[in-house]
Amino acid sequence: MTDDRVGVLPAVESTATDIAEMRIRGAATIADAAAEALATQAHQTQAEGPEAFREDLRAAAQTLYETRPTAVSLPNALRYVLRGMTGETLAELQASTIARAEEFQRDLAQAQTKLGEIGANRLRDGDVVMTHCHSTDALACVEAALEDGKEIEAIVKETRPRKQGHIAARQLREWGVPVTLIVDNAARRYLDRTDHVLVGADSIAADGSVVNKIGTSGLAVTARERGVAVMVAAQTIKLHPDTMTGHTVEIEMRDETEVVSKAERAEIAGDIDEELRVENPAFDVTPPRHVDAIVTERGQFPPESIVVLMRELFGGSTGEPWEP
Known about the structure:
Layout: H1 10-20, H2 27-43, H3 50-65, H4 73-83, H5 90-120, E1 128-131, H6 136-147, E2 153-157, H7 165-174, E3 179-182, H8 187-190, E4 196-199, E5 203-205, E6 210-213, H9 216-226, E7 229-233, E8 239-240, H10 262-269, E9 283-286, E10 293-296, E11 299-301, H11 306-314
Parallel strand pairs: 1-2, 1-4, 2-3, 4-7, 5-8, 7-10
Antiparallel strand pairs: 5-6, 6-9, 10-11
Helix pairs in contact: 1-2, 1-3, 2-3, 2-4, 2-5, 3-4, 4-5, 5-6
């Protein structure tokens, strides 16, 4: 990737290329790289005055944002750093921007540990948790509870079609947690002996809607019917201030071969193949009314209060497109 905007440094362009081509990937890794790139832009600036510096930083942020605009951690990192760009002189602007980027990176490095400690406070000795998909944030809560000396059991949904639940089950067994692995359709049956549904999130909208692996919404609705608390564990880099409600988030549709093989498709379709439609959505949206708490490294919040945290962290109005 190249950028012909005046003032954007080659180091920033290089980071942008690595993000775009997925050599840098993962929510936290992308956010860390973006903050580091803005710090580099500030440190090595060629701007001759305060206004030129601000323009260059915004151009650098836009260059980074355009690499993967749907990766919510990326604009969140950029917003956070740009909000700290304060001062009247060029030297003051440089110093404040670099300090803000370093602060973001320090907080990010400690975020999952803090989140786990907060989430563990909601788990009691002897609790049974039901998990869906594989979330390192959600498992951090279990790990912290174990470190506190609590005994925790887990009912793990396979999470088809890619069976990410198997990854979660393996990690929990390595920690010595008793695990019952179940098929997705058995969730309602096993909620009768579940104390908490514990899931992660790919992103969280301003109204507290949770976008997560397909099947999360149905599980949350059933859990609410059964009186089982639903806890969502997500670092603040997953908050999505651009989106007022989760239903405006574009849902990724994955390849149908994850659901049926070519041979299975041919068998099902028979002689009318052109009329067979196979859809494989990766995520769904859980309305905030079905979530009891969203646990972050900044504390735990009822879903309807998450917008307050978004404004505190990222400023500006929620539900509006990214602007550097």
